[in-house]
Amino acid sequence: MAVSLLGSFVDPSHEIAIRERFAERLPGLPCSCSHEVSPEIREFERTSTTVLNVLLMPVVQRNVAGLLARTRQAGLAAPLYLVQSNTGATSPEQVGPAPVNLLLSGPSGGVLAAQKVAAAAGRDNIVAVDMGGTSYDITIIQNGRRSVIAQGDIDGLPVRVPMVDMRTIGAGSGP
Asked: Smallest Cα–Cα separation from 98: which of 54, 150, 157, 163?
């Protein structure tokens, strides 16, 4: 359930009360409140981001739990960090309530790698391309820096979380 009220970026108390009521009546239902996902004045963008976040919650939480279980079974004791859309890293515990921050994690990891390779090669300005099974992602590294924007769009809908500035072209489907 996505909860997004008009003035919640100023006073989230009503969103919190709604979440608590639904949790009593429908325990286990994924719930995302806009004041936690995107606490800003722009209600359409905040709502769109919150809806996407709650849709991702069960899938990402299930996948991260499976990954943690497999690493433990393999005897790996190192901490697990996940790449975010802004190229930052987060822990599995932090990603649980805000999986929307991982939305472009794969391509942003490619941008970070391209930036590091360019720096090692002594290049400050490059066009980085990441082609996967479903997309062709393009970004520019200028003066040795990648650009991070506050809002992007996914399938024509605004997503208001920090992400690497890139352009994506659909490239078919994965295997």
From this structure: 54
